[in-house]
User: Which sequence fits this backbone?
């Protein structure tokens, strides 16, 4: 997606530890016009899929998920990292975070995911793929169908993309980073 | 706001402990069409304010903030509850949660809030007002201006609204709950 790649080249930054910082337009400060364009782009890429629900994980997936849900005119659900005291029965999955070197639980109320649902899973980043696999496990547990995976920025030098495609999932990444070596952003 | 009140009456639920559950359309499953309408409503209510930034707090404020930021065509920033390792200098505030009976820290990078900013603070709920006061403290620390406070659902039987108005802040709440007694939702 041309606009997203332009934002990454213009506003993205690479830290010393080879982390791509996009916190000026995606995951701290957010550009709402870019988000709505991302929503339209995913709508077009999954136009044949009859999606009836969008699923993501708090917090940085929410802005993208609301944009694509608005484009598709379907509800979106975000998995929570802590189960609220008011939540009834829920689906759960464990996710390992390589960045934070810790496991965490994600949870979705059984009220909002059923076997009738055809679900588009979206997130801002794809690296090792663990968060997406956790969301997929929740969709599977509900007996629902994964219609596809929509990612804003995929780290092409990490295995998440290959892992998801080997499972037969339809993955669409709007920008793929091939390398962050020498603090240079190389886009595919 | 008529549409939001209709959603609350139709889909809202009151738990045994007098908590209003709106997790089918605001804070777990989210209706994107309602969100965009809420965005337009806040744009109209603050049309004289020359807002150039929208500020909220993760996670359940994000959907509303992105909608109002899109309506106003300005960036939005969400305060984080944990400071990421990649974040540089930041503004911080402590917020006491009465629901969770604990204090937590919120943080916004100094990159994304400056003395030039005229900020609309938004959130899904207003009860005691502590989260909003925390966000206001961060805006003050940055030398920026609070243009107003936009709330989807205010609990009118708790003091947050009065506290904010006594500070001279322009508060707009789209729905005010006067009572949840006897598990009945009474809207103002």
Assistant:
């Amino acid at each position: 997606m041309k606009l997203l790649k332009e934002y990454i080249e213009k506003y993205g930054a690479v830290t010393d530890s080879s982390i791509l910082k996009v916190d000026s337009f995606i995951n701290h400060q957010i550009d709402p016009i870019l988000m709505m364009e991302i929503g339209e782009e995913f709508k077009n890429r999954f136009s044949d899929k009859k999606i009836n629900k969008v699923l993501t994980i708090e917090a940085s997936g929410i802005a993208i998920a609301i944009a694509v849900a608005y484009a598709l005119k379907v509800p979106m659900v975000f998995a929570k990292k802590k189960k609220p005291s008011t939540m009834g029965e829920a689906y759960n999955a464990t996710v390992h975070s390589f960045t934070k070197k810790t496991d965490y639980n994600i949870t979705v109320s059984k009220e909002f995911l059923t076997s009738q649902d055809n679900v588009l899973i979206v997130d801002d980043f794809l690296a090792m793929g663990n968060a997406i696999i956790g969301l997929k496990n929740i969709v599977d547990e509900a007996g629902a169908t994964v219609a596809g995976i929509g990612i804003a920025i995929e780290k092409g030098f990490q295995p998440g993309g290959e892992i998801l495609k080997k499972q037969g999932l339809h993955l669409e990444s709007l920008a793929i980073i091939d390398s962050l070596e020498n603090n240079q952003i190389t886009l595919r």
Q: What stands out?
A: The mean pLDDT of chain B is 96. The radius of gyration of chain B is 16 Å. Residues 32-45 of chain B form the longest helix (14 residues).
